[in-house]
Specification:
59% helix, alpha+beta, five-stranded antiparallel β-sheet, 5 strands, elongated, 15% strand, 2 domains, 12 helices
Length: 406
């Protein structure tokens, strides 16, 4: 396919064959790296959050919903990274197999090789603009509300044999014997401190326990027991009642996940129209609302700057891939992580500086793109001068020269 493209170009024909060839080289690395990056983000979130939600006794569907809602911000970050990885991997493979050299011999320079991925990068950039404006705010809002509901839910209460349970407010539960398969218990004690006038102690030789999901509490069916009540006001007063069979309900509020809704939205939970409306209201008193205004302008600019990063990373990735002269996602991922970390440090640092009022939000959010774009143009200029974009041989000699003698 490449030989056909070179031959066609050499005969002055259309570059469509070469265009399609280069784009096909990007498809597999892009989707593979996109899936891998999202998988890494998910693993990181699992390690961060699983310990906080595992003891809540949540339904499996709710746990999956929580992680699904967090996929939105992962996609917003992963798409530009995947573009950079795919570009470096594709051009690195072509350089390693001397395809770039063959194209240069036919007069196809780096600037022409840049055109296919640069044009194609408009698609993920446009997708991200729409995604961050329409889908990301909704999923961020739902994720925050669900996380708040999970935080309010009490951990799952487990009654163990021979262990006092203090998790239910106003009650202390104890059972010497418990059969976990049948929920049958022996030698049961329930201390009730909810009555302001009486200390109540319920004991029974045998009993059965079940959870009442409707009333959000425990239902005890006890046999051969007694109820003792001691007055809190008159310590000498004591009541004792024996029973053969009795049923008691112990309320345990907060054991069920109560789903709520919230009308309030933060700046990351708004689309562009909502943020512009909020900014218009805040601008009526700009001195008082300076920090809030800065925060909203940061988010507005960020929605576009992260999207445009897809195009900037192609500009950077082409000379990096040609200079690497090695194919494979390992090398591409190493380059991409390094430069994306630089990009992300500038983005987060700029956001903090903008919210403190040191620089404007536009400068803060667009300076990483300007930096990476300028670096990409410089490396591309070196490639057009038939020089390695990154002089690896010189760097290796410097390291060897500075290495201490053994």
């Amino acid at each position: 396919m490449l030989l056909r493209a070179v031959h066609s170009y050499g005969n002055g024909l259309s570059m469509s064959i070469l265009f399609r060839y280069i784009l096909r080289e990007h498809i597999a690395p892009f989707f593979f790296s996109l899936g891998l990056i999202i998988f890494i983000f998910v693993l990181n979130l699992v390690f961060q959050m699983l310990g906080r939600i595992a003891d809540k006794g949540l339904p499996l569907a709710t746990i999956f919903e929580f992680f699904f809602l967090n996929l939105a911000w992962m996609i917003a970050l992963a798409v530009p990274m995947a573009v950079l990885v795919a570009t470096v991997a594709s051009f690195g493979r072509m350089a390693a197999e001397r395809e770039i050299t063959a194209l240069k011999a036919c007069g196809v320079g780096p600037t022409r090789l840049l055109l296919p991925p640069l044009v194609a990068s408009v698609l993920p950039a446009a997708f991200l603009v729409e995604f961050q404006n329409e889908i990301l705010p909704i999923m961020n809002h739902r994720s925050r509300v669900l996380q708040s509901d999970i935080h309010r839910k009490r951990p799952t209460m487990v009654l163990e044999a021979g262990v006092f349970l203090f998790d239910i407010p106003g009650y202390v539960l104890y059972a010497r014997e418990i059969d976990p398969r049948s929920s049958r218990m022996g030698d049961i004690v329930v201390y009730d401190e909810n009555d302001p006038e009486w200390h109540t102690t319920i004991t029974a030789r045998r009993g059965f326990l079940e959870y009442d999901s409707v009333e959000a509490g425990f239902l005890f069916m006890l046999t051969d027991g007694e109820i003792g009540r001691a007055s809190k006001v008159k310590p000498e007063e004591y009541q004792r009642t024996q029973f053969e069979r009795a049923m008691f309900r112990v309320k345990a509020p907060g054991t069920l996940l109560e789903r709520t809704d919230s009308q309030w939205r933060s700046d990351r939970e708004m689309n562009l129209h909502q943020m512009y409306e909020t900014v218009r209201k805040l601008q009526k008193d700009p001195a008082r609302n300076r920090k809030q205004l800065a925060g909203y302008w940061v988010e507005i600019n960020k929605k576009f700057s992260i999207s445009v990063a897809c195009i900037i990373f192609v500009l950077l990735g082409v000379p990096l891939g040609i200079s690497a002269q090695r194919g494979g996602l390992g090398v591409a991922a190493g380059f991409s992580i390094f430069f994306f970390l630089i990009y992300w440090v500038f983005l987060i640092g700029g956001e903090d500086l903008a919210e403190r009022g040191f620089i404007s939000p536009a400068v803060a959010m667009w300076s990483p793109n300007v930096l990476m774009g300028a670096l990409g143009l410089f490396l591309l200029w070196r490639q057009t001068r038939s020089a390695l974009a990154i002089p690896w041989d010189r760097i290796v000699r410097i390291f060897r020269r500075n290495r201490p003698a053994s």
